[in-house]
Amino acid sequence: MINGSGQIIALAGATGDLGRRIANALTARGATVRALLRTGTPEGKLAAVRRSGATPVVVDFDNSTALQEACTGAACVVSVLNGLEPVIIGVQTQLLQAAVSAGVPRFMPSDFSLDFTKTRPGDNRNMDLRRAFQGRIDAAPIKAQSVLNGMFTDLITGQAPIIMHKQRRVLYWGDVDQKLDLTTKDDVADFAADVALDAQAPRFSRIAGSAVSTRELAAIMTRLTGTPYKPFRPGGLTMFSAVIALVRTLTPRSDDAFPAWQGMQYMRDMLSGRGKLSPLDNNRYGKTD
To answer: Superkingdom, according to UniProt (predicted)?
Structure first.
């Protein structure tokens, strides 16, 4: 754990689940956290930010001068913003420009994903947005430090229902032995806090709490529940791609960052192995695998 005493971190997205956890991890290290919040943020969210130990700074993100002032003096600007192009490209670019104008030395973009640098353009909308922002930040006069973590562990029984409790099955497409990178949100936040405070952190830090295959997940669920779980394979990745295309066609236009077909695109990148994290940086800050 890095001692953050004396460092100021400007954090955008502190009202979200991961953002709140990162704020907690930073303040636990002694860092001073400025939570950059948009004008009109409800008082309840401001209070929640204060409980994390961060200081709310309400700012109009469209006001470049005000945003620059909010970033001034920070050692790193951390973005945990979530959304589609208007946010990932638009608002993040405003934040990036403010950080550069304020002379902030480092910027952590809101990547927190599988390894989008290895995925195929056009296969995953949200990874394409990260790739597009990567081009902007890598061209800017600031050091970028991204954290890549695979999939949040809690999603495998929620938004990405890999584990099917009622059917006692573990869903997969393709290879039953393909390893999947899973990391809890608390572990991601813990590692991200260290990276935000580390001027020597690399461009990309890749972490995984566990790397397990579908076959291994089925064995783990069997052991935990005492009830046999089995892998369930509806088809290969080519068929999965066809299903994704069909679901996307049938889904009404939505501003949701994670419609069903987007989650399926994410799973395809994991199950294909294209988004696999390697090498891992788990031990960079004295943490175990």
So the answer is: Bacteria
71, 64 contact by CB (below 8 A):
no
Cβ atoms within 10 Å of 42's Cβ, excluding its own: 10
Instruction: Tell me the pLDDT of the chain (289 aa) as tens digits.
Output: 888 788 999 999 999 999 999 999 999 999 999 999 999 899 999 999 999 899 999 999 999 999 999 999 999 999 999 999 999 999 999 999 999 999 999 999 999 999 999 999 999 999 999 999 999 999 999 999 999 999 998 888 666 678 999 999 999 999 999 999 999 999 999 999 999 999 999 999 999 999 999 999 999 999 999 999 999 999 999 999 999 999 998 887 767 778 889 999 999 999 999 999 999 999 999 865 4
What angle in degrees, to the nearest 10, is found between the helix axes of 17-28 and 185-196? 50
* Stated pTM of the model: 0.93
Residue 128 to residue 210: CA distance in whole angstroms: 25
Q: What is the C-alpha separation between 243 and 48, in angstroms, rounded?
A: 41
Q: Which of 222, 261, 217 is nearest to 242 (CA)?
A: 261
Contact between 9 and 196 under an 8 Å Cβ cutoff? The reply is yes
Side-by-side strand order, sheet with 210-212: 151-152, 180-183, 210-212
Tokens in use for 265?
A: 């695109």
